[in-house]
Amino acid sequence: MDPxxxxxxxxxxxxxxxxxxxxxxxxxQSGTITEREFHSQILDDLExxxxxxxxxxxxxxxxxxxxxxxxxxxxxxxxxxHVDFHYEVNRSLAACEGALLLIDAFQGVQAQxxxxxxxxxxxxxxxxxxxxxxxxxxxxVEEVLEEVENILGLDASEALRVSAKTxxxxxxxxxxxxxxxxxxxxxxxxxxxxxxxxxxxDKYRGVVTYVRMVDGVIRKGDNIRFMxxxxxxxxxxxxxxxxxxxxxxxxxxxxxxxxxxxxKELSRITVGxxxxxxxxxxxxxxxxxxxxxxxxxCGMYPLDATGFESLRDELQKLSLNDSSFSxxxxxxxxxxxxxxxxxxxxxxxxxxxxxxEREQDMDLIQTAPNVTYEILTKSGxxxxxxxxxxxxxxxxxxxxxxxxxxxxxxxxxxxVGTIMQLSQDRRGIYKxxxxxxxxxxxxxxxxxxxxxxxxxxxxxxxxxxxxxTMDYEIIGYTAADLVKxxxxxxxxxxxxxxxxxxxxxxxxxGRALVKRLKTEINKxxxxxAIQAAIGGKIIARETISAFRKNVTAKCYGGDISRKxxxxxxxxxxxKRMKQFGAVEIPQKAFLSVLEANRDD
Length: 600
Ligand SMILES: Nc1nc2c(ncn2[C@@H]2O[C@H](COP(=O)(O)OP(=O)(O)OP(=O)(O)O)[C@@H](O)[C@H]2O)c(=O)[nH]1
Known about the structure:
Blueprint: E1 6-13, H1 19-29, H2 35-38, H3 47-52, E2 60-67, E3 70-77, H4 86-93, E4 98-104, H5 111-122, E5 126-132, H6 141-152, E6 160-161, H7 170-180, E7 193-202, E8 206-215, E9 218-219, E10 223-226, E11 231-241, E12 245-247, E13 250-251, E14 256-261, E15 274-277, E16 296-302, H8 308-320, E17 326-332, E18 336-343, H9 346-359, E19 364-366, E20 370-371, E21 373-377, E22 382-385, E23 397-412, H10 416-425, E24 429-435, E25 440-448, H11 449-452, H12 456-463, E26 469-479, E27 482-489, E28 492-493, E29 499-502, H13 503-520, E30 528-534, E31 537-544, H14 560-574, E32 577-580, E33 583-586, H15 587-590, H16 592-599
Parallel strand pairs: 1-3, 1-4, 4-5, 5-6
Antiparallel strand pairs: 2-3, 7-8, 7-15, 8-14, 9-13, 10-11, 10-15, 11-12, 11-14, 16-18, 16-19, 16-20, 17-18, 21-22, 21-23, 23-25, 23-26, 24-25, 27-28, 27-29, 27-30, 30-31, 32-33
Helix pairs in contact: 1-7, 13-16
The chain binds guanosine-5'-triphosphate.
Guanosine-5'-triphosphate is lined by residues 13, 15-21, 53-55, 81, 132-133, 135-136, 163-165.
């Protein structure tokens, strides 16, 4: 394939601005998919993505497009739009020469439009602004284009105006891809160099490695090497995404496709690695990617001990296709054997948890999530803390550090004050405000990650009536006055309820938490004290009074069937309970920490 006829591009956008719809429309208009397939959102094939309407895992597809008697090979690399999946965006961009920057004609430039555009500018991609949804009743295209110029510093004079939904003007998108985005360079005669930009585990074929060719040619039977992992393997099959896996004879410079090898474990194929020939290797690998870093952790426990092995199997299966999710066995006095799971962010956590519950039909107890902390001990050691239970005794701590994020909000001008107040209340450090036009502004704060991951997004949406957006990146760790807060139920500490809080908010959080727990834990036949403590000191207390529970008391006379129904209902309610000493604690109580933060 002549590289001059190849174009490699991504579509980048804020969530919901229509990226998947445009991708599908490009596939439809080029004849890659049928009308029927178009209506079922072909690129988002995971069930959860369909249900929640978000793209989680990057996909890629090759489109043949005829123009002026030539057939061009257009490689679209799909990217997810949500903050949690930044690293997926960056890895996709490195495989492209250009990007379509898609912007909703009414909503205009939003927080992730900015973040994604900057990522593309950083790697020197040619950016084509595309205003989408021009079929809507109310649009403000001119203002949106002004925002593109003011905020992103891009030339918007030749921006395209399309409707991905109806297909209006989508032909101009093909023209722009061919005329504006540069073809890849590279030589078939140089030693093989191909970038691994994704990989996934397929039940039938094993590990499918996604590659973007740079130099050289790859064919079936070649003996290749993954340079960073230093793994050699024979090529069993190569092919392209059309959009299913379709084998081909060879892949040359600039092309995008897949390689099947004898490698069985996904963990041995690192995204960002370089593929070369084992007997004629390239001198140096391509610049790689940073590994994704888990920033949010929580415990997951089977409801009863027999579920441990099957939970392990399920977690393993999930991690086969999601290398950004991690899990390790842990034990809790209260919950028994379970796993500590790490996620990129809260959305990522929710998605994994839902997949477990839905696809595997598992009953789980999940503890409240926490971010990753660092502790410098008196002996000079730096500990990474993923679990509040691992915090050492305060006498051994020299410095307690928390992750800090640079958060950028884009909000209606009248909400700037509220956002500043919200950030200030959460220990934010003000950076700057920039007006994007008469009605909207960008406000930047540095905020502790723990103060934003749980509910900042919801709060932002509610104070701006849905018009505000935010994006964040972790910029490092700083020392803070943090303490571990324990919860005692009937005098005994429940380890899975411990949290790390800032000392200045400890009293308030402690009170909110015990109050919440009081509503979550049912009355028992004895009185139950619920206390919050720091070190040995009790900072808050609530009491659940004793109650003799007799659900059948309501059933007068001998209505047996009704009585049985009630008993069954009670049994059902017990399903998600964990016995702790004499007290039954329901699943929801373990998430109280999270809820109490939100009540705050
Ligand atoms: N009216 C109108 N609606 C559109 C258009 N393009 C997309 N939409 C709608 O906007 C919503 C979001 O579109 P998606 O294509 O799922 O958005 P996305 O950017 O891929 O979203 P993520 O994958 O979650 O990042 C869907 O309900 C689409 O039907 C358009 O041109 N006009």
